[in-house]
Amino acid sequence: MAGGTQAVWRGSEKTASSVKEEIAKRWGKKEAETYDPRKNCFTYQTWQAKGYQVKKGEKAIRSRTLVEVTDPDSDAKKAVTAKYPKPVYLFYYKQVEQKKALSQ
Predict the structure, then answer these.
(1) Cβ of 18: how many Cβ atoms within 10 Å?
(2) Which residue has the higher pLDDT, 103 or 46?
(3) Whether the predicted model's global pTM rises above the 0.85 cut
(4) Looking at the chain, which runs of residues are DSSP E strands?
(5) Neighbours of 67 (CB within 10 A)
């Protein structure tokens, strides 16, 4: 599986719970217990950066996160002026494989 580094997870317990439910539907309740949003379920780009490739034909697990918009002109540091939901497409570790080295 992925190396020892953890991902930055910005989700909530509610989103983690919905991802866990989807993992249970696809691979069973026992597998869902191993789900950790910081260690084994990432976006396509994060898996790529870790040296993994999503297997052909795999379907993403849909989730969402809240994006905070800050006002750069505000006196308060990092004053959040708005929040909006953004869809996130995740892949569980069972859906990826290590990238193969290119032959020279």
Answers:
(1) 16
(2) 46
(3) no
(4) 41-43, 52-54, 61-70, 80-92, 96-98
(5) 11
